[in-house]
Amino acid sequence: MIDSEVIQIAQECRFEISDVYPLKLEASGREYYRIVDKAGKNLVLCYLDPSMGTHSKFEHVSKFFLDQGIRCPKVIYSNAALGVTIQEDLGDSCLIDIKSVSNENTELLNKSIAILVKIQTANVPQIPKLEQGSLLEQMTRFESIFIKDFLSVDVHKDLSSLKDQTIEELLNQPWMNCHFDFERRNLILLDDGDVAVVDYQDLCSGPIGIDLAGLFIDHYIKYSTKTVMSSLDYYGTLLKIDVDSESIFEWVRWGAIQRNMRILGTLSKIYLDTGRAFRLKDLKIILNNLIELIPDDNFKNLKNYLSGEVLQSLEIKMSQI
Fold first, then answer.
1. CATH topology of domain 95-320
2. pTM listed for this prediction
């Protein structure tokens, strides 16, 4: 939306504002704007076309998160007919933009782990459970959309075996509350040094490794093995589980395989459907992370195919966009 449209919607919600600053557009179609009211207070307006969905899940989860001490934006106002929520403004210090975050600085990583444990163990009623069929369908987008439709490459036969093993591994993990997009772009460093979480409208019950993968298999930072293992030990201590870091990393591995296949399919679908090059620049690093995580046992031919034909086709495709 242009600024005048945001101002008009805010006025319909009985908010008189003086300034509008676009923040971000999400893959879900949600649009975020910082608005400044007449008293000079910053708020965040989130718009979602009502034909595409509602904010009811976000409002529901927000209430229970806040009640249980999980830092997140308070919903100040909502209007389902207009597709609007107006939320507390948590500021601009998204962890993905903080230069001090690196593979040698674990302070913010540990704070992120701490809020993840709170999320995973929070009592939030009436959230859906991820279905096995949904997990499989999300991975299938990788071959049907990313490989076939986006890259026009033939599908390797071993992808079917990889999907089957991934489902088996995920079903054997502990299942807890799952943010489903737990990564640094959805974590905010607050002025008091605490970390808050946003964009949790997809909260569900799911495999523990999916959110861990979003944190540890970062698209922009490659953590050292030492950092990952020590942080996973810290995670196990906070969660109070008697599992070593190597075993937890296997949860991360299979969560990341599912997650990266899903993201590659989703981002390429957005481009094919809308022409919007939403995060296409991330595709190569996401694909490389996927290749690295796939076990060599039984999947050497598949990894060669992905690192050869698929990666080369992606580089050509990106040079044409």
1. Aminoglycoside 3'-phosphotransferase; Chain: A, domain 2 (3.90.1200)
2. 0.95
